[in-house]
Sequence to fold (616 residues):
Amino acid sequence: MSKGDSRSAKLTFLTVVVFGVIGLYTIKLFSMQILQGDAYRRRSQNISQRSKKLPAQRGEIFDRNGNVPMVLNIDSFAVDLTPGEIPKDSFSTVISKLSARLGLSPTEIEGKIPQNLRKSFQSFEIKANVPYSDIASIAETIDELPGVSWHSKPIRNYVESGSIAHVLGYVGDITREELKLFYNKGYTTNSVIGKSGIEKQYDEILRGKDGFEFRTVDVKGRYIENSTTIQAPEMGKNLVLTIDRKIQQLAEDALGERIGSAVVLKASTGEVLAMVSYPYYDPNLFSMDNANDEYQRLLNDKNNPLLNRVVNASYPPASTFKIIMTTALLQEKAISPDKRIDCDGEIEYGDRIFRCHIRRPGHGPLDLKNALAQSCDVYYWVAGRDNLGVDRIAAYAEDFGFGKSAEIDLPSQTEGFVPTPQWKERRFHERWLGGDTMNMAIGQGYVLASPLQMADTVAMVVNNGTVYRPHLLREIRDPASNAVLMTTEPTKLFESNISPEVFAQVRDDMRYVITNGTAQFPMKNKIVQLAGKTGTAEVGLSDHWHSWMVAYGPYGAPAEDAIVVVVMVEASNSWEWWAPYATNIIFQGVFADQTYMEAVDALGFRYLAGPRGRQE
Fold:
């Protein structure tokens, strides 16, 4: 090959290489600018922008009438600090002046800003729930406080702060543990989250969607004027509960200042019309600066005001369990309802003497209907031990929902307990005895239930074997238009195969308890016919008992019209057998549309009860 040909080949090769490189760059530029241009522009914009969260207001919460909110938001402010905007030699001075305005120590303020970010232009929230007067004070001297700013941060205002607190719950700052669980759902270190009750159960619906303020910054992170864009926050959805605030207040007053609970349930739908647990607390305390101190105080209170006794406490159901026993005896045809068992006040079994609550001379010979009416322990001891047995008693208890979750829409609840011989063997390494069966037959011993489970028990009798899932949420509504977005429909929790004829007989027998039995005087009512069962649970003290009353009304009306009322007064109160009186007051107030004191006067209970149910 000649020298000319060699040079020509080299030139051709170089030309191909150059044009190849130019072609590759052209393709790359085309890809970056045209095909991937939007992605790179977004990346560039993210690098040159700083964002500031604009907290969304939580949705409001209403009672079933949906007119006046029980929970709303009130304006409040949070103070921020951007350390990069503070001159280096002024940092300590600014911190000192800000601490005087906010009532925080300089150490507390400095602790809000990580050491490695002391020169950054990132904003840090120093204090929330700052009143307008403090913001005004800061604004007046803002020239002396470079890097200091503030933003609106609404706080919860619980308009209804009595017994409804256990239903509504409260909110608080998110913890590290909660953030780990909910980080992927958009929660951040500054999020406010529901801690209990409805606030926690429906937090994702109530919390809304935070907005953002975007501002362009230079290479040093300093804001550029007139570069702000706003993405507006979206308020959370409003909730309408099944609670009727008037019935809630009535039940609260009827229970009074007695440690215990009351629940009012619509049998045919599972709607909870009232849920009262005493003592209760003020959820507004958790919006105060000393919220942690208040929480510790409540935790240390021996009466446990944070406990919702309707759903989270379980007790021996005592003689209210005889409703289940009567149902089981009738369904199993274990004993003729006309057969009489003689009660002389006590029964000897093994090395123990079991004494009926009436003691000597006892109730005399009783059939099933009168045994329930007089709450005769001897009858149920004998029938439970000799005619049913522990396995069938346990099976019927479970059929009524004992030992299972009631699945109410609250964050936690007890399942109660149904003991069995196998459980006792595993737990205590002891054999199940006939005496255990006898105790279980009258709702004592190991068997436990919550007041809500007892309400479901009565609802099953009313509904001929169907229990609807108890619920507190009625509707979800749009906060702007008030349009209904979702309605809770009645859902069957469980259904029994017990004969409707058996339930009809049990309802008749429960009515007989009111007309001729233990509740004859305290449950007498001219406005509405009632049916129910009393219960007095032993707790190991000679002069203290739990007082139960479970009832429904109107008796004889369609199930769609019936409400169930359960009142439970703990043995820690002075003994006064108040549960049946409180129950009757609630029924009177509901069906006669009366306040607590009006119902008390109508029933002739003024000599028993003072204002808000306190004895005089």
User: Anything to note?
Assistant: Residues 611-616 have pLDDT under 50 and may be disordered. The CA atoms of residues 326 and 506 lie 7 Å apart. The longest strand covers residues 531-541.
